[in-house]
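Exercise 4. Each item below gives a protein and its sequence. For each, produce the structure-token representation.

Item: ATPsynthase alpha/beta subunit barrel-sandwich domain-containing protein (marine sediment metagenome).
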Amino acid sequence: MSNLFPEFNRQSELAEALAYKRYGNVIDIQGNLFTVDLPEGEAVTQNEACFLIIEFDGETIPLKSEVIKVVKNNAYCQCFEDTLGARIGDVVRFGGMPLFAELGPGLLGSVTDGLQNPLYDLYDKCGLKLQRGVYLNALDRKKKWRFTPSASVGDTVRSGDWLGYVPEGPVRHQIMTPFELRDEYTIKEIAPTGDYSITEVVARLEDENGQSIDVTMIQRWPIKQPLHLYYGDE
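Answer:
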């Protein structure tokens, strides 16, 4: 059994970043652009999310970044925050996933920054002076939403098919079969009408090999898809 979108608490990203096994070191930095030298045999992909780990004012701060190009054993990255305090030799850790946006109930009523941090929650945590390296969950994990199933156990579904719906104000969110699923799946379990948080399982699907996949109300969509259009040695 697997969860297509395992729960990821953005408030623990420092711990997550420090636990990443794949890493490199900064060899050049200009503003918010920096180059990482990767150890022999280490591989990263374009548009992969990473963290530039800096030491500043006695604190260890993870700065969210993205790989914008890979040439041989060098990764060219863009940082989304002020890089004050970054130095040659700083460690960059790679998580193996692209930058993503969280979609689900609660999104329509939120106001976020460019990294999908909810601004009101960010103010409660940091005050008027925003801190670097602070990343909050885009969607409220505690709030309950009224889920009503629109599919039944035994139904065959493909990506994008409706499993149920959740009202948010005048809008009816359709809870869909995740778009990452390319084959046909059978609904083995589906939650009855009731109130659920966005991290609770509302449907369980099974593929032709008997592999189960849990579906919640959250979907995470990559911000970008890599394009391989480099020439020559690149």
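Check: Residues 5-11 have pLDDT under 50 and may be disordered.
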